[in-house]
Every structure is written in C-alpha cells, then in structure tokens.
Write a structure and sequence with these properties.
Order of helices and strands: HHHHHHHHH
Largest sheet: none
Strand content: under 5%
Radius of gyration: 20 Å
C-alpha cells in the first residue's frame, strides 16, 4: 500500500522538496511497521536469517524455508524444459516429489508460489511471453485511458504473482478477468479533472 501511495504522490506535480519528504515518510513508515508489528518483524528476521539455500528438514518449516525449497526444486525443471515446459500436472508432481525428500509433511502439496516460474515450468517460455504481452497490453490501456486505479490493480496483480499462483486456480482467474473487463469496458478516468 505504501508503494502505491508513493507512486501516486510522485505522479502528481509537486515540488522536489515535497517528493523528498514523501520518500522519507515512506521509509520511516516501513521502518516503524517492521519495528512495532511483531509478525512483520518476525518475517523480516526469518527471511534475513536464511543466508544460504537450506531446504527444510523439519515437519513444519517456515515460509521462507518453503519458498527456498520450492525455488531449489523448481529451478532444475525450468532449466531443462524452458522451451516447452513439462505440463501442469507433471510440473507440480516433480516439484512435490523433489520437495518431499526434504519435508516430512507427506500430505501437504505445494505449488511453485511464483506464477511466472509456473508458466515456464509447465508450458515453456512462449507461454510466459504471451502472458507478459497480455499484461503489457493492459498496462498500455490503463495508461492510455489515464485510469490509475486500473494501473494500480495491475501492479498489485503483477507483484503478487511473484509470490503466489493466484491464476492457477479458477477463482483467481475469475477475479482478475472480472475486474480487468470492467476496467477495459468502463474506464474510471481517475485522473480527469472535474
């Protein structure tokens, strides 16, 4: 949210001094949030302490360990099959087979937790390029229409795809397409002067 507020502030015509003040407020807000909000502080310490690619060897690994393990297990699949991929079911099966060697929780199945690597691993680089082209097209429309709410929606989706596979499930696709269709058909023109 602070990122979106900072972009919105810098997008407005303000003085250089106000932009510096806004930047300092964002930095101080993030620092204060990390210091005062215990779960956030715990997450930062957890990620910072993962200095090397250690795979989780305990029944309930931390989320940082899970992501490191998923990257470790997903990278060989992607490197060997980056042109065509291996298919959705095969990609997740290979990922979970690799991951089960390090994690004792047999009944838990993980996806790649990165939609971009999921696209390359399951369908190849052409699929990823087509998806990025689609995103670029929607960014272009949002900027052409000067619909900043649409732009921020796309930015949130684009960033969240680095940590979640929200579009590998039907509800994620319906959510995204529902809002994208509304934005394309009826632009809010949030930047227009009244």
């Amino acid at each position: 949210m602070l990122l979106l507020l900072a972009i919105e502030f810098f997008r407005k015509k303000t003085t250089y001094k106000n932009k510096i003040i806004a930047f300092l407020i964002v930095v101080l807000s993030i620092s204060a949030a990390i210091y005062f909000i215990q779960p956030l502080q715990k997450k930062v310490v957890e990620v910072a302490s993962a200095k090397q690619f250690e795979l989780p060897n305990k029944k309930w690994p931390t989320s940082a360990q899970i992501r490191i393990g998923l990257n470790y297990c997903g990278s060989p699949i992607i490197n060997e099959n980056w042109v065509t991929g291996v298919g959705i079911i095969t990609f997740e099966r290979i990922l979970n087979t690799c991951y089960s060697k390090f994690n004792n929780a047999e009944k838990i199945h993980y996806n790649s937790h990165n939609y971009y690597s999921f696209l390359i691993g399951s369908a190849g680089v052409l699929c990823l390029l087509l998806f990025l082209l689609m995103l670029f097209w929607h960014y272009k429309i949002s900027l052409k229409q000067k619909d900043w709410i649409y732009f921020y929606f796309l930015l949130l989706i684009t960033l969240s795809l680095f940590t979640e596979n929200i579009l590998s499930r039907v509800y994620g696709v319906v959510f995204m397409l529902f809002f994208m269709t509304i934005f394309v058909k009826t632009p809010l023109k949030s930047n227009q002067e009244k």
